[in-house]
């Protein structure tokens, strides 16, 4: 085996090392710095959990509002609920008495 074989073998090794180094840099970049990197995925997972919790709260509020709407429809009118709304909005009840509502914070 002559000198040409050793030179070609060294060139192949250098090319393989360079190729593997670039491949490693490429993979590490995408693993830690790209849009789909591990830190971004962890952030998105945390946001997903937070948004799912907000969705549960909003669904509960929606159910409560649907119950109130049902109670205020003409065929299923709840007199107590109407009186409660009158007290809150107008400040007096059906008997003519004045009601003062204080904030919970004060």
What would your notes on this structure say?
The chain is mainly α and 106 residues long. The protein has 3 helices and no strands. The chain has helices at residues 3-32, 38-72, 79-90. The longest helix has 35 residues, at 38-72. The protein is rod-shaped and about 110 Å long. The model has no long low-confidence stretch (mean pLDDT 83).
What is the compact description of this entry?
The protein is mainly alpha-helical.
Write the layout of secondary structure elements.
Elements: H1 3-32, H2 38-72, H3 79-90
Descriptive terms for the model:
single chain, 106 residues, mainly alpha, 3 helices, 73% helix, 0% strand, rod-shaped
Find the structural class using helix and strand composition: mainly alpha
Please give the count of helices: 3
* Beta-strand fraction estimate: under 5%
Low-confidence stretches: none
What is the mean predicted local confidence, pLDDT? 83
Radius of gyration: 35 Å
Largest sheet: none
